[in-house]
Protein backbone atom coordinates (compact mmCIF):
# COMPACT_ATOMS: atom_id res chain seq x y z
CA UNK A 1 0.00 0.00 0.00
CA UNK A 2 1.45 3.36 -1.07
CA UNK A 3 -0.12 6.71 -0.17
CA UNK A 4 -3.12 4.88 1.29
CA UNK A 5 -3.89 3.16 -2.03
CA UNK A 6 -4.32 -0.61 -2.17
CA UNK A 7 -3.43 -1.62 -5.74
CA UNK A 8 -3.85 -5.07 -7.30
CA UNK A 9 -3.17 -5.62 -11.00
CA UNK A 10 -5.41 -8.23 -12.59
CA UNK A 11 -4.20 -10.59 -15.29
CA UNK A 12 -6.81 -9.64 -17.88
CA UNK A 13 -6.86 -5.92 -17.08
CA UNK A 14 -10.05 -5.59 -19.14
CA UNK A 15 -11.59 -2.53 -17.56
CA UNK A 16 -11.61 -4.06 -14.10
CA UNK A 17 -11.02 -1.88 -11.08
CA UNK A 18 -7.38 -2.25 -10.14
CA UNK A 19 -6.94 0.11 -7.20
CA UNK A 20 -8.81 1.38 -4.18
CA UNK A 21 -8.00 4.64 -2.43
CA UNK A 22 -8.31 3.68 1.24
CA UNK A 23 -8.19 7.30 2.42
CA UNK A 24 -11.14 8.18 0.19
CA UNK A 25 -13.01 5.05 1.30
CA UNK A 26 -12.31 6.02 4.91
CA UNK A 27 -13.73 9.50 4.39
CA UNK A 28 -16.73 8.46 2.30
CA UNK A 29 -17.77 5.76 4.75
CA UNK A 30 -17.59 8.23 7.64
CA UNK A 31 -15.19 6.08 9.66
CA UNK A 32 -13.39 9.15 10.94
CA UNK A 33 -16.68 10.62 12.12
CA UNK A 34 -17.44 7.52 14.20
CA UNK A 35 -13.95 7.53 15.75
CA UNK A 36 -14.25 11.24 16.57
CA UNK A 37 -17.59 10.59 18.25
CA UNK A 38 -15.92 7.89 20.30
CA UNK A 39 -13.23 10.34 21.42
CA UNK A 40 -15.88 12.94 22.18
CA UNK A 41 -18.13 10.58 24.14
CA UNK A 42 -15.48 8.76 26.18
CA UNK A 43 -12.60 10.07 28.26
CA UNK A 44 -9.42 7.98 28.23
CA UNK A 45 -9.71 4.31 27.18
CA UNK A 46 -6.73 4.73 24.83
CA UNK A 47 -6.16 0.95 24.34
CA UNK A 48 -9.85 0.40 23.57
CA UNK A 49 -9.95 3.22 21.04
CA UNK A 50 -6.78 1.91 19.42
CA UNK A 51 -8.34 -1.55 19.02
CA UNK A 52 -11.44 -0.01 17.44
CA UNK A 53 -9.22 1.87 14.97
CA UNK A 54 -7.38 -1.36 14.14
CA UNK A 55 -10.66 -3.22 13.57
CA UNK A 56 -11.88 -0.36 11.37
CA UNK A 57 -8.68 -0.58 9.29
CA UNK A 58 -9.10 -4.35 8.91
CA UNK A 59 -12.70 -3.99 7.77
CA UNK A 60 -11.79 -1.22 5.34
CA UNK A 61 -9.07 -3.34 3.75
CA UNK A 62 -11.32 -6.42 3.60
CA UNK A 63 -13.98 -4.37 1.86
CA UNK A 64 -11.38 -3.11 -0.62
CA UNK A 65 -10.15 -6.66 -1.30
CA UNK A 66 -13.70 -7.75 -2.03
CA UNK A 67 -14.15 -4.93 -4.54
CA UNK A 68 -10.96 -5.96 -6.33
CA UNK A 69 -12.19 -9.51 -6.66
CA UNK A 70 -9.66 -11.08 -4.34
CA UNK A 71 -10.46 -14.30 -2.53
CA UNK A 72 -12.80 -13.06 0.16
CA UNK A 73 -14.73 -14.39 3.10
CA UNK A 74 -16.65 -12.18 5.50
CA UNK A 75 -14.47 -11.81 8.58
CA UNK A 76 -15.76 -13.09 11.90
CA UNK A 77 -16.83 -10.01 13.84
CA UNK A 78 -18.27 -11.36 17.09
CA UNK A 79 -16.57 -9.72 20.08
CA UNK A 80 -15.99 -9.90 23.81
CA UNK A 81 -15.85 -6.73 25.92
CA UNK A 82 -14.43 -7.29 29.39
CA UNK A 83 -14.05 -4.86 32.25
CA UNK A 84 -15.66 -3.46 35.35
CA UNK A 85 -19.04 -1.68 35.28
CA UNK A 86 -19.13 1.89 34.05
CA UNK A 87 -16.12 1.65 31.73
CA UNK A 88 -17.98 2.49 28.51
CA UNK A 89 -18.69 -0.96 27.07
CA UNK A 90 -22.23 -0.15 25.96
CA UNK A 91 -21.17 3.18 24.42
CA UNK A 92 -18.41 1.48 22.44
CA UNK A 93 -20.86 -1.20 21.31
CA UNK A 94 -23.17 1.52 19.97
CA UNK A 95 -20.31 3.11 18.05
CA UNK A 96 -19.21 -0.30 16.76
CA UNK A 97 -22.71 -0.96 15.42
CA UNK A 98 -22.59 2.38 13.60
CA UNK A 99 -19.13 1.62 12.21
CA UNK A 100 -20.14 -1.82 10.96
CA UNK A 101 -23.17 -0.33 9.24
CA UNK A 102 -21.18 2.44 7.54
CA UNK A 103 -18.71 -0.12 6.19
CA UNK A 104 -21.47 -2.41 4.96
CA UNK A 105 -20.99 -5.31 7.35
CA UNK A 106 -24.48 -5.07 8.89
CA UNK A 107 -27.69 -3.92 7.18
CA UNK A 108 -29.16 -1.63 9.84
CA UNK A 109 -26.54 -0.71 12.41
CA UNK A 110 -28.84 -0.80 15.42
CA UNK A 111 -27.92 -2.20 18.84
CA UNK A 112 -30.11 -4.54 20.87
CA UNK A 113 -28.89 -4.75 24.47
CA UNK A 114 -30.05 -7.68 26.59
CA UNK A 115 -29.31 -9.71 29.72
CA UNK A 116 -30.08 -13.30 30.67
CA UNK A 117 -33.67 -12.44 31.61
CA UNK A 118 -34.40 -11.33 28.04
CA UNK A 119 -33.22 -14.65 26.60
CA UNK A 120 -33.94 -17.39 29.14
CA UNK A 121 -37.44 -18.55 29.99
CA UNK A 122 -38.88 -19.75 33.27
CA UNK A 123 -40.35 -23.04 32.12
CA UNK A 124 -40.02 -25.72 29.44
CA UNK A 125 -40.72 -24.38 25.98
CA UNK A 126 -40.31 -20.73 27.01
CA UNK A 127 -36.62 -20.12 26.24
CA UNK A 128 -36.50 -20.88 22.51
CA UNK A 129 -39.21 -18.38 21.48
CA UNK A 130 -37.76 -15.70 23.78
CA UNK A 131 -34.27 -16.11 22.39
CA UNK A 132 -35.46 -16.28 18.78
CA UNK A 133 -37.54 -13.14 19.22
CA UNK A 134 -34.51 -11.21 20.48
CA UNK A 135 -32.41 -12.53 17.62
CA UNK A 136 -35.09 -11.45 15.16
CA UNK A 137 -34.96 -7.91 16.57
CA UNK A 138 -31.17 -7.86 16.41
CA UNK A 139 -30.77 -9.18 12.86
CA UNK A 140 -29.01 -6.71 10.64
CA UNK A 141 -27.28 -5.15 13.61
CA UNK A 142 -25.49 -5.91 16.85
CA UNK A 143 -26.71 -7.99 19.79
CA UNK A 144 -25.05 -6.88 23.04
CA UNK A 145 -25.35 -9.43 25.87
CA UNK A 146 -24.34 -7.89 29.18
CA UNK A 147 -23.08 -10.17 31.95
CA UNK A 148 -23.18 -13.01 29.44
CA UNK A 149 -21.80 -15.54 31.94
CA UNK A 150 -25.18 -15.65 33.68
CA UNK A 151 -26.47 -17.58 30.68
CA UNK A 152 -24.58 -20.62 31.99
CA UNK A 153 -25.25 -21.97 35.46
CA UNK A 154 -23.16 -25.08 35.97
CA UNK A 155 -24.70 -25.76 39.37
CA UNK A 156 -28.13 -26.28 37.83
CA UNK A 157 -28.30 -29.10 35.28
CA UNK A 158 -31.90 -28.22 34.45
CA UNK A 159 -31.20 -24.54 33.85
CA UNK A 160 -32.79 -23.29 30.63
CA UNK A 161 -29.82 -21.05 29.84
CA UNK A 162 -28.12 -23.90 28.00
CA UNK A 163 -30.92 -23.89 25.44
CA UNK A 164 -30.39 -20.17 24.80
CA UNK A 165 -26.64 -20.78 24.43
CA UNK A 166 -27.17 -23.48 21.82
CA UNK A 167 -29.48 -21.25 19.77
CA UNK A 168 -27.04 -18.33 19.99
CA UNK A 169 -24.09 -20.47 18.90
CA UNK A 170 -25.97 -21.76 15.88
CA UNK A 171 -26.99 -18.25 14.77
CA UNK A 172 -23.52 -16.82 15.42
CA UNK A 173 -22.10 -19.42 13.05
CA UNK A 174 -24.77 -19.68 10.36
CA UNK A 175 -25.88 -16.04 10.16
CA UNK A 176 -22.68 -14.21 10.96
CA UNK A 177 -23.06 -12.12 7.80
CA UNK A 178 -26.23 -10.58 9.21
CA UNK A 179 -25.59 -10.38 12.95
CA UNK A 180 -22.69 -9.43 15.20
CA UNK A 181 -22.82 -10.58 18.84
CA UNK A 182 -20.90 -8.80 21.58
CA UNK A 183 -20.58 -10.58 24.94
CA UNK A 184 -19.73 -8.37 27.91
CA UNK A 185 -18.90 -8.71 31.59
CA UNK A 186 -16.21 -8.97 34.25
CA UNK A 187 -12.95 -10.36 32.85
CA UNK A 188 -12.51 -13.25 35.32
CA UNK A 189 -16.10 -14.43 34.97
CA UNK A 190 -15.95 -14.19 31.20
CA UNK A 191 -12.81 -16.35 31.21
CA UNK A 192 -14.61 -19.05 33.20
CA UNK A 193 -17.61 -18.74 30.91
CA UNK A 194 -15.46 -19.31 27.82
CA UNK A 195 -13.76 -22.28 29.47
CA UNK A 196 -17.15 -23.84 30.14
CA UNK A 197 -18.46 -22.95 26.69
CA UNK A 198 -15.65 -23.36 24.14
CA UNK A 199 -18.14 -22.89 21.32
CA UNK A 200 -18.34 -19.22 22.24
CA UNK A 201 -14.59 -18.72 22.41
CA UNK A 202 -14.09 -20.24 18.97
CA UNK A 203 -16.60 -17.80 17.49
CA UNK A 204 -15.18 -14.66 19.13
CA UNK A 205 -12.71 -12.85 16.88
CA UNK A 206 -11.95 -9.77 18.97
CA UNK A 207 -11.38 -9.63 22.73
CA UNK A 208 -11.23 -6.07 24.05
CA UNK A 209 -10.42 -5.28 27.67
CA UNK A 210 -11.75 -2.03 29.16
CA UNK A 211 -9.46 -0.61 31.88
CA UNK A 212 -10.73 1.26 34.92
CA UNK A 213 -10.58 5.04 34.73
CA UNK A 214 -7.90 6.95 36.63
CA UNK A 215 -8.87 9.57 39.22
CA UNK A 216 -8.07 12.35 36.76
CA UNK A 217 -10.17 10.75 34.04
CA UNK A 218 -13.09 10.33 36.42
CA UNK A 219 -12.85 14.00 37.35
CA UNK A 220 -12.92 14.96 33.66
CA UNK A 221 -15.92 12.67 33.17
CA UNK A 222 -17.73 14.38 36.05
CA UNK A 223 -17.17 17.82 34.51
CA UNK A 224 -18.50 16.59 31.16
CA UNK A 225 -21.55 15.05 32.78
CA UNK A 226 -22.36 18.30 34.58
CA UNK A 227 -21.75 20.41 31.49
CA UNK A 228 -24.28 18.35 29.51
CA UNK A 229 -26.89 19.47 32.05
CA UNK A 230 -25.64 23.08 32.19
CA UNK A 231 -24.04 22.69 35.62
CA UNK A 232 -20.45 23.23 36.72
CA UNK A 233 -18.29 22.92 39.82
CA UNK A 234 -17.00 25.94 41.67
CA UNK A 235 -13.18 25.73 41.98
CA UNK A 236 -13.50 24.56 45.59
CA UNK A 237 -16.17 22.01 44.64
CA UNK A 238 -13.94 20.63 41.90
CA UNK A 239 -11.21 20.07 44.47
CA UNK A 240 -13.72 18.46 46.84
CA UNK A 241 -15.01 16.13 44.16
CA UNK A 242 -11.45 15.10 43.34
CA UNK A 243 -11.06 14.06 46.97
CA UNK A 244 -14.46 12.34 46.81
CA UNK A 245 -13.26 10.20 43.88
CA UNK A 246 -10.11 9.18 45.73
CA UNK A 247 -12.15 7.97 48.68
CA UNK A 248 -15.07 6.45 46.80
CA UNK A 249 -13.08 4.30 44.37
CA UNK A 250 -11.48 2.45 47.29
CA UNK A 251 -14.88 1.44 48.66
CA UNK A 252 -17.07 -1.53 47.66
CA UNK A 253 -19.39 -1.48 44.66
CA UNK A 254 -17.56 1.27 42.82
CA UNK A 255 -18.65 1.31 39.17
CA UNK A 256 -16.44 3.91 37.49
CA UNK A 257 -18.47 6.43 35.43
CA UNK A 258 -21.74 4.92 36.66
CA UNK A 259 -20.85 5.71 40.27
CA UNK A 260 -19.74 9.20 39.26
CA UNK A 261 -23.11 9.84 37.62
CA UNK A 262 -24.92 8.71 40.77
CA UNK A 263 -22.71 10.93 42.94
CA UNK A 264 -23.46 13.94 40.76
CA UNK A 265 -27.19 13.27 40.96
CA UNK A 266 -26.93 13.39 44.74
CA UNK A 267 -24.81 16.55 44.61
CA UNK A 268 -27.47 18.24 42.50
CA UNK A 269 -30.10 17.12 44.99
CA UNK A 270 -28.13 18.70 47.84
CA UNK A 271 -27.60 21.86 45.82
CA UNK A 272 -31.33 22.18 45.17
CA UNK A 273 -32.16 21.76 48.85
CA UNK A 274 -29.43 24.19 49.88
CA UNK A 275 -30.74 26.85 47.51
CA UNK A 276 -34.33 26.30 48.57
CA UNK A 277 -33.51 26.55 52.26
CA UNK A 278 -31.03 29.44 52.21
CA UNK A 279 -31.85 31.63 49.23
CA UNK A 280 -33.22 35.08 49.92
CA UNK A 281 -34.68 36.70 46.86
CA UNK A 282 -34.28 35.80 43.19
CA UNK A 283 -31.50 33.48 42.04
CA UNK A 284 -29.56 34.05 38.86
CA UNK A 285 -28.40 31.41 36.37
CA UNK A 286 -24.96 31.19 37.95
CA UNK A 287 -26.37 30.31 41.36
CA UNK A 288 -28.73 27.74 39.86
CA UNK A 289 -25.93 26.12 37.87
CA UNK A 290 -23.04 25.97 40.35
CA UNK A 291 -22.21 22.98 42.51
CA UNK A 292 -20.59 24.24 45.72
CA UNK A 293 -18.13 22.34 47.94
CA UNK A 294 -20.75 21.79 50.63
CA UNK A 295 -22.85 19.88 48.09
CA UNK A 296 -19.95 17.41 47.80
CA UNK A 297 -18.59 17.36 51.34
CA UNK A 298 -21.99 16.44 52.77
CA UNK A 299 -21.55 12.97 51.26
CA UNK A 300 -21.24 10.06 53.66
CA UNK A 301 -18.07 9.10 51.82
CA UNK A 302 -16.34 11.73 53.97
CA UNK A 303 -17.75 10.33 57.23
CA UNK A 304 -15.25 7.47 57.47
CA UNK A 305 -13.59 4.57 55.66
CA UNK A 306 -16.62 2.32 55.97
CA UNK A 307 -19.15 4.71 54.46
CA UNK A 308 -20.30 3.42 51.07
CA UNK A 309 -23.18 5.68 50.13
CA UNK A 310 -23.41 9.26 48.97
Kindly describe this structure:
With 310 residues, the protein is α/β, with parallel strands linked by helices. It is 52% helix and 11% strand. The protein has helices spanning 22-29, 31-41, 46-67, 89-102, 116-119, 127-138, 161-174, 187-196, 198-203, 215-228, 235-248, 257-278, 285-289, 293-297, and strands at residues 5-7, 19-21, 79-83, 111-114, 142-146, 180-185, 206-210, 232-233, 290-291. A five-stranded parallel beta sheet has the order 4-5-6-3-7, sandwiched between helices. β5 (142-146), α7 (161-174) and β6 (180-185) form a beta-alpha-beta unit. Mean pLDDT is 89; it is low at 8-14.
Structural class label:
alpha/beta
What is the averaged pLDDT score?
89
Q: How are strands sequenced across the largest beta sheet?
A: 4-5-6-3-7
Strand content: 5-15%
What Rg, in angstroms, do the CA atoms define? 24 Å
Helical amount: 40-55%
Number of helices: 14
Q: Given the C-alpha coordinates, what overall shape results?
A: globular
The low-pLDDT segments are 8-14
By DSSP, the count of extended strands is 9
Distance between the termini: 55 Å
